[in-house]
Amino acid sequence: MTSIPLPSAWIDRIFSEFSAMYGKHFANMWYGADVSAVKNTWANRLAGLSGAQIAHGMKMCERLNFPPTMPEFKAMCIGVDYQGSFNEAARQQYNRTNGTDKWPSRAIFWAAQKFGPHDLMQQSYGPNAKRWAAVLDEQIALAPSLPPIPEPRIAIPPPGGETIPNEELRNRLKALVGKMKRGTA
């Protein structure tokens, strides 16, 4: 079943708001383009979104210095599973301690770093729901400009702590020397 495109009045309102918010930056996005075709594409690709979702997306745009593309705006409109993303961030932060982390997005990674990796792994979602939502919303809004997720840094145990087999130590040192030669360490 195909969703009905957003009403043209909604798209006109979105474009009017973006024009007021971003001025020439928004106008320059469509320089030389057939604006009616652009609006038609937005209407079709945003089909099925509710007024509340559009309003959420517009609220998210208040944090951006530049206008979002249609896919970025749609992602902002759809919203986020805050509790699920909190739990996933805590799981990946724990996995990061041994280098097995696989982050679902840069926004979730950087939200975890801003929230505090230790806090994330030690606290539950309930009392931190509002704080996590605010931090994650901020990072989602910044998503187009967020840096890549850096490689994890695995800590070497303190003297007398866990020992590393010699073969593993050689492999880690070899990898570190390779990174240093490439300038990525």
List the helices and strands and how they pair.
Elements: H1 8-22, H2 24-29, H3 35-45, H4 51-61, H5 70-78, H6 82-96, H7 106-115, H8 117-122, H9 129-141, H10 166-182
Helix pairs in contact: 1-3, 4-5, 6-7, 7-9
What is the structure about, briefly put?
By secondary structure, the protein is an all-alpha fold. It has ten helices and no strands.
Annotation keywords:
185 residues, mainly alpha, elongated, 3 domains, single chain
Rg calc: 22 Å
Number of domains: 3
By DSSP, the count of extended strands is: 0
The main pleated sheet reads as: none
Amino-to-carboxy terminus distance: 51 Å
User: Assembly type of the shown chains?
Assistant: single chain
Structural commentary:
- The chain is mostly helical and 185 residues long.
- It folds into 3 domains: 8-78; 82-145, no CATH class; 155-185, no CATH class.
- It is 61% helix and 0% strand.
- The chain is built from 10 helices and no strands.
- Helix 4 (51-61) packs across helix 5 (70-78).
- The longest helix has 17 residues, at 166-182.
- It is elongated, with a radius of gyration of 22 Å.
- The protein starts with 7 loop residues before the first helix and ends with a helix.
- The model has no long low-confidence stretch (mean pLDDT 86).
